[in-house]
Amino acid sequence: MSLQAVDAGKGVRMTRYAPDHDDSFRPRQRRLRRPIWVTAGVLAAALVAAALVWVPPRLACGLGSGLVERGGECIGVTDGSPAFVPGEKSGLEQQFRAIQALIKAENDSVAASGEEAVTVALLTSLTPVDGGPLSPQQTLRSMQGAYVAQKRANDPAGGMGDAQPKVRLHLANTGSRQTQWQPVAEELASMKDAGAPLVATVGGGVSTRITEDAFRALADEKIPMFAAVASADGLNRSGRTGGGADREGRIEGLVRITPSNTDFVLALKDYVKERGDLENAILLFDESEPDLHVATLTEAFRKHMAEEIGGTPDQPFSGSTGTDDAKSHPFSPLVRSICRTEADMVLFSGRTADLEKFLVQLTDRPCKETRQFAVLFAETGPALSADEEKTLGNAGITMVYASSYDPGWRADAREGEPVPVGFADFHRAFVEHLGEEDLSALESGDTERGQGSKAPDAEVYAALSNGYAVAHHDAVMAAVQAIRLSNEDNDGGDISAERVIQVQFNLNIDNVVEGAGGSLEFRPDRNGDPTGKLVPVIELPPAGNRIDPYVTGSGTR
Q1: End-to-end alpha-carbon separation of the chain, Å?
Q2: Are 98 and 442 in contact (CB under 8 A)?
Q3: Residues 152-167: pLDDT tens digits?
Q4: 23: number of Cβ within 10 Å
């Protein structure tokens, strides 16, 4: 079904029929006067009513901004202005405005150049709230990573090949819970025929049924998608997407930068084998619908860690993220049960906010003096503060993350260290395009302070630590590479979203995407999952059990 709205008055042939009798002697003026006044009155009332419905939601977000207030949030697509900000006070409002001002400036520069340009849209939750699918911090880093990739794409010396066509980056807000995707998808579809046509979307948010529905709607409009962090198994290939529900088959045009949940679990399986001292596991899983990430992560744990789980009953809980009416589940009963098993591993299949609540209870467990635990989890980037690491270490708990980013990666890594080939170039660009005004100044929203200085390494790596900047940089990088590949041998034809879809599975061999997170290839047999993506396993606090990263698509580390 097309997403484009259909004007009921267009495309309909109106035929006038001659009357089969002569009424020319009737007083036409007198006969029509009353209906005209009635019709005019009805029309005026209808226009007023329509204005009362149409105008207020647009006034709330700034008339002329293109944004519409829906459910208390400004929804729609911008070029960086006006700026989206978190839905609740988070302390990051100025940072949000600062990065969007940079995106707006780059878009204006592209427009002023007069060169051929296309549009890529970052589709995600841009008015995030704590406890929602994406946190304000994750959204901020997503925008920063996408912006750095845009700057590299438009710079002949940016390391991304020929800087043609130029790239405009637009921001598409689906709301704090990602529920407002439909009007945004409709707007994106209408942008395919713009002067700088929309030819790809990146991001997409996390793996929920809502995300899948949005992806399928974009696929119907032949708009390619380069997902950054949606890791649910089956999301982009035939069959089921998890949770026992049959879906509509592979989503055409969808590839993703992130490892799949199966990839994450295989990396954790390697870690367990390498350690040799972990034997028994208990699975805790979020039974809430409609969370595809959790449903497919649970299935992957059950399949690939079946030997370690053995006959220990799984422990369900009701997660507290993703929906407004979600309630926090009591974890104390689960912790008491864990203490009564032989488990030395807890396989946690849920969202980060629920993990944090569980860890609080596990830290104060009744078997604290006699039992130590490793908690295995999958996440785009590790999410523990130094104080939290210390607390867990003192309580005999080690967090073990399978991640798509390793905070230990360094731009000056020695030869042989397991750091992606493209990470150093990304790091340099991140410092250049954000650090040139001092990243700490950007973080405070004060872009006038410290101009020309470079951010200290500690601040740069802290900004990268949750993995969202790397994931969204690589998503834009892959999209740009596909766009330019589609334009080869085009004989002056228009660049289109459809042509980009045609070449997605040519991003391999001679067209590898040398991203910050790995040397990424997309092949038909992987159905859009990346080959060559590194999946490091990270211990917090470090316990000295470091292993080489698992590599997606290879079956080896």
Answers
A1: 43
A2: yes
A3: 999 999 999 889 999 9
A4: 8
Closest CA to 437 of 429, 427, 426, 449: 449
Q: What whole-number percentage of the chain has pLDDT above 70?
A: 81
481/393 Cα distance (integer angstroms): 44
Which among 255, 259, 316, 265 is positioned nearest to 291, based on CA atoms? Answer: 316
Eight-state DSSP code of residue 259: P
Per-residue model confidence as pLDDT tens digits over 277-325: 999 999 999 998 768 899 999 999 999 999 999 999 999 999 876 555 4
The string of DSSP letters for 123-187 reads EE-SS--TTSSS-HHHHHHHHHHHHHHHHHHT-TTSSSS---SEEEEEEEE--TTSTTHHHHHHH
Q: Are 308 and 272 in contact (CB under 8 A)?
A: yes
* pLDDT value at residue 238: 45
Residue 13, Cβ density class (10 Å: 0-12 exposed, 13-18 middle, ≥19 buried): exposed
Cα 9 to Cα 101: distance, rounded to the nearest angstrom: 40
Closest CA to 362 of 295, 315, 293: 315
Task: State the CB neighbour count (10 A cutoff) for residue 369.
Answer: 7
Instruction: Copy the structure tokens of residue 101.
Output: 């001002």
Among 199, 99, 106, which residue's Cα sits nearest to residue 142? 99
- For residues 196 and 164, what is the distance between their CA atoms, to the nearest angstrom? 13
Count CA atoms within 13 Å of residue 545 on its CB side: 21
Pick from 462, 476, 557: nearest CA to 516:
476
Q: Which amino acid is at 122?
A: L
The pair phi, psi for residue 356, each rounded to 5°, is -60, -40
Structure tokens at 456: 């200290």
Residues with Cβ within 8 Å of residue 490, at least 6 apart in sequence: 499
Tokens of 550: 């698992």
- Give the pLDDT of residue 41: 61
Region 49-57: mean pLDDT is: 45
The rounded mean pLDDT for the chain is 85
State the pLDDT confidence band at 190, using cuts at 50, 70 and 90.
very high
One-letter-per-residue 3-state SS of 186-245: HHHHHHHHCCCCEEEEEECCCCCHHHHHHHHHHHHCCCCEEECCCCCCCCCCCCECCCCC
3-state helix, strand, coil in the chain (%, to 5): 40, 15, 45
DSSP-assigned letters across all residues of 122-139 = EEE-SS--TTSSS-HHHH
Contacts 24+ apart (CB under 8 A), 152-157: 152/429, 152/477, 153/476, 153/477, 153/480, 154/106, 154/109, 154/110
3-state SS record for 398-437? EEEEEECCCCCCCCCCCCCCCCCCCHHHHHHHHHHHCHHH
Task: Encode pLDDT of 435-458 as tens digits.
Answer: 754 455 455 554 443 444 455 678
Which is higher by pLDDT, 506 or 236? 506
pLDDT band at 272; cut points 50, 70, 90: very high
